[in-house]
Amino acid sequence: MDPRTLLITLTGPDRPGVTSRLFSVLSGFPVTIADIEQVVIRGRLTLGVLVAYAGGRSTGTGTTLGALWTAVERVAEDLGMEVELSTGSQAKEHRRRGRLSVSVLGATLQPAAIAGIAGRIAAAGANIDRIERLAQWPVTCIELSVSGANPAALRVELAAEAAAQEVDVAVQRTGLSRRAKRLIVMDVDSTLIQGEVIELLAAHAGCLDEVARVTEQAMRGELDFAESLRRRVALLEGLPEEVFAEVRKEVVLTPGARTLVRTLKRLDYRFAIVSGGFTQITDALVEELGIDYSAANVLEVVDGRLTGRVVGDIVDRPGKARALERFAAAAGLPISQTVAIGDGANDLDMIAVAGLGIAFNAKPVVRQAADTAVNTPYLDSILYLLGISRDEVEAADAEDGVLTPR
To answer: Which pathway does this polypeptide act in (predicted)?
Structure first.
């Protein structure tokens, strides 16, 4: 006889013992567990259990399927819950190929955004198998498990919908490949920290406007980075080296930066920074945050003053990609297990090389080139793209005695 299935769905107020009661009853019947799924939203529980049994009305022990139905209905009545039961053929149940994770993130999520995303998924001939909330504050993030879609084509479709709905959407393959990304390589200026270090230095030199103008051109890709850096650094000539201590005090981390680094370090990720800025500032960030690897430029200092020159090779656009490859080799990881995060044209090569490239509050050219974009001001939103929920982060912080604020 063909194996058959019975889907049992309990809904009602959540309370301790619901799962135990149901499975205690099921243990008295010759059935096996084929699938289980449970979710609680605002104190209301939905528990779905799929059990398999021998074909026909008899379960093979003389106990009818009707007796199992009666027993389950009695449990639901005792618990003050509703129950639905439906039978089917196990042979017809299968998992569709091409499983993807679609993360939808926004300051707020409107029904129209979810309708638009879901509509695009359906139009692509794909199916939403599961929806889970990963975060509720300071941004909302939901994750959809999708099957039956081509990832490249779906990414294009959802990127268009995300722009229309003003949300962020990331499409990634599920499974081990997603969980195996163990090296994070991040830009520093306007990514790990707010603002540009060279502009902080320029403010002390009285040339902020000119430096800021050249910086913006370079970040948009309108100027060669190495040449733009030399032009800007030349304007700093004569600054006393004591300015580094002053600028280090002025550096402000991006909201969520500490949470991001702390959480990933707990999970044994390696963390690296690569910067077109300067070691005189980034070295302090490495020590403060416990960062594993770093690369940045070195400002020349002679007789206690800046010379207006850079020492050694400049960490430019290709230099950042080389640094990512060097860090991956040092960590003993393939490039496919790396994540690159940046905001400017100088980050394009490392974003292209990495297993996952993320544009964080980035220029348009970077958003178009990256695998996904995050446009919220909170750096720890990147955790949700890696499948880590806000509840998991806060629970780990509580265990370690870390305050929840970011």
So the answer is: Amino-acid biosynthesis; L-serine biosynthesis; L-serine from 3-phospho-D-glycerate: step 3/3
